[in-house]
Amino acid sequence: MLTPMTGRSVIVTGASKGIGRGIALRFGEVGAKVLVVSRRLEDAAKVADEITAAGGIALPFAADVGREADARAMADAAVAAHGGIDVLCANAGIYPTTPLAEMTMDDYGRVMDTNVKGTFLSVIACLPALKAKRKGRIVLTSSITGPITGVPYMTHYAASKSAQLGFMRAAALELAPWRITVNAVLPGNIMTEGLAGLGADHVATMEASVPLRRLGTVFDIANAVLYFASDEAAYVTAQSLVVDGGQILPEGGMMAPEVEEAG
Ligand code: NAP
User: Fold this and answer.
1) Is 197 exposed, middle or buried (0-12, 13-18, 19+ CB in 10 A)?
2) Could you report the per-residue pLDDT of 186-214, keeping only the tens digit for each?
3) CA 155 to CA 108: how far, in whole Å?
4) Ligand 1 within 6 A of CB of 70
């Protein structure tokens, strides 16, 4: 049982759907005050409404994390509405597919702007408020793609997710004097709107490659984020936690044997 998050101010970027929505709902359940961030206010508002309807505290905020002014406004909004910032979940990310031979620097830039620059800008904007707490938490949503595995047509994405881990290690050192921890969750294939958009065939192939025989849920990831944000994780920094149902395990394509369902 983790120490309750009652009254903690938590920012979740990319929280209008998918993994970010799961993270926001989970923090709402455990009593945090959640700033639900995405570029479209009406989508963020739906998730904030879900949290408040369940008895939690949440506010929607529209920001493009790749824009410096938006990131600063996001941090200011959390401080003004929720009295500071205890936890930043830098989760917003995009994962378009583009063959390397056709990739333009616009394709590359769009991915880097959200996934890498967005991480930098979100952290930089939240730093004064996180430092003031002397126990701030930064949790990044990276991926197994890049840091551990490779996927064709996702070179820009894989590079961006590895970049987040390099950032994490250097930032963890730099921010340790303020007792800010920086950690990352590395999801495998998680059933989200974004993933569904890759097509039914893609999803079926992914499912077949997971030893635990299912895609992850957004709450599988949210629970790992919650741990990194907790008081119990105070001595854990610059670590990455793979949450993938064993997806990266099979050697040479060797899957675990099929078993009968327990009756
Ligand atoms: P998703 O379902 O497509 O949702 C993405 C969220 O990010 C939406 O709320 C979107 O809302 C927001 N967003 C996108 N660009 C943004 C920007 N520039 N500024 C602010 N918000 C922005 O994605 P997901 O599958 O949940 O993925 C979330 C994170 O998990 C990403 O970092 C991704 O790399 C990582 N991940 C996902 C999987 C997976 O299997 N799903 C696996 C590994 C890692 P708006 O469009 O309204 O801004």
Assistant:
1) exposed
2) 999 999 987 788 888 888 888 888 999 89
3) 9
4) no
| Three-state DSSP class for residue 19 | helix
Q: Could you tell me the distance, in angstroms and rounded to a whole number, from the CA of residue 193 to the centre of ligand 1?
A: 9
The reported pLDDT for the residue numbered 263 is 53
Distance CA 218, CA 7 (A): 23
**Reported pTM:** 0.97
What residues contact residue 260 under an 8 Å CB cut-off, 6+ apart? none
Distance from residue 211's CA to the centre of ligand 1 (Å): 25
Query: What are the distances in angstroms from CA 70 to CA 42, 65, 73, 181, 260?
Result: 16, 6, 5, 24, 52
**Is 157 annotated as catalytic?**
yes
Pick the residue whose CA is nearest to atom 44 on ligand 1.
143
- Residue 95 Cβ contacting ligand 1 at under 6 Å: yes
Report the residue among 11, 19, 198 best suited for mutation to probe ligand 1: largest number of ligand atoms under 8 A from its CB.
Answer: 19
